[in-house]
Amino acid sequence: MSLTVLTSTYRLRSLCRLRRIQGHMMSSHVEQEVVMEKVGKAGVITLNRPKVLNALNLSMIRQIYPQLKKWDKDNETDIVIIKGAGGKAFCAGGDIRAVTEAGKVGDSLAQDFFREEYILNNLIGGCSKPYIALIDGITMGGGVGLSVHGRFRVATEKTLFAMPETAIGLFPDVGGGYFLPRLRGKLGLFLALTGFRLKGRDVQRAGVATHFVESKKIPDLEKELVDLKSPSADDVSRVLDSFQNKSSLDSDKPFILDKHVSDIDRLFSSGSVEGIMQNLKADGSEFAKKQAETLSKMSPTSLKITYKQLQAGASLSLPDVLVMEYRLSQACMRGCDFYEGVRAVLVDKDQSPKWNPSTLEGVSDQSVEQCFSSLGGKDLTF
Known about the structure:
Layout: H1 3-25, H2 28-31, E1 34-39, E2 42-47, H3 58-73, E3 79-84, E4 89-91, H4 96-105, H5 109-125, E5 131-135, E6 138-140, H6 142-145, E7 152-155, E8 160-162, H7 176-179, H8 187-194, E9 198-199, H9 201-205, E10 211-212, H10 218-226, H11 233-245, H12 261-267, H13 273-283, H14 286-297, H15 300-313, H16 318-334, H17 337-347, H18 365-371
Parallel strand pairs: 2-3, 3-5, 4-6, 5-7, 6-8, 7-10
Antiparallel strand pairs: 1-2, 8-9
């Protein structure tokens, strides 16, 4: 069979898969993938795809954005609460498989998804009303974007946080370039490069969540928040503080990274990813060995993009970070590691991606620089 026929067949299969996925993505009116309701003077958003851990798709973004914009300007809405249905996840991330299929065939979803998701992230970051994310369960990638830029983020013992994008040839987007470098020391860079998972109370200890409340108390917390009369951010804060003070679960356990904080600051202080790898290999401790092993499995291109993203993002505003990240998202769509990472981790699940280039040394500074280049008229605007 000729290469042309093979390529055409491949594109056709991808297109068919994409149409199937988009059919599911746009079926929200039947299944109500996101439920938005007014409860008193509170706007309540419930992510309602529990079978897929409330993964965020384009139709959900297109429903949440106009409603949140309306509530933000509405005198009849005092606060906004966002939560996930099903008891397992707040939101486990964006609908990456659909984006992958779109990218393969040049479908506009590969631009639309990132653009509209980042515009929503920016709206959350600038929301004038107290915005409270109840991150009771898995919160990764796109789920972090729906929560971390809001004024209040409430973790529970069921919260599992991670930004695992370097493992699939992507980068910690949705404003990761803004919030990660603002965590203490080199913690954000460590989380970004390694995809390290934080659980429960540690999500608050790291600074990702603002509060920790036991999962069984969340319904009562929500009721008390909804019942507040014309609350200020301070009023909301007082309610969250009081629930936190009544939540003693795991309070005696130290932060999982406590004994490694100074190691992380030391080992991840370098002018390059190669320098970090050298630090880890030279250190010889069990912790350092484990991190070196983890990084060796990640996309070298993703690691270098992520390093530069956080370096730049440390001194940028959230909107400027999102403009930068949109450029990076489109560079990943043009490259090959994202498709290979999704294949290895999410599709075939063989966990053996063949990265190209396969080494950090093979990723030139010039190729990294190009990922940050302006898209001209196609740049993200708000």
